[in-house]
């Protein structure tokens, strides 16, 4: 879901980086704290793009007892532990609920979240601050890490 179409409530959410709890591998730079639509007692993290080079789909597709969404587990590419799942096909009740449009989920028990700051380093980054394309996000992150590298020399 493009950021401009995202509900204003979600645009005000903090952006978090997610690392695998088992091996500390960075698995996502565009995370958001979320709740499971089918069971609002379950807290997790979500993202809008598949994190490239960090996770992969494992196992067969399945649905849960709480809803009819078709999902598939995802695992950390570094250690192989399951860290979340991908919603392959959302069910009608979930689509009709107020949602953030994210289909890549991470279990709170499998990842560690850390709030990201903007490029000045002084403010927590909000979802409304993110570029709407992953390519632009990757370019900005690369520029940021290059500036850090030059600063450390």
TrEMBL record:
InterPro entries, per the entry: YPEH2ZP
GO cellular component, one term: cytosol
PANTHER family for this protein: PROTEIN FAM72A-RELATED
Record-stated family: Belongs to the FAM72 family.
Protein name: Protein FAM72A
Phylogenetic classification of the source organism: Eukaryota, Metazoa, Spiralia, Lophotrochozoa, Brachiopoda
Annotated gene: LOC106175502
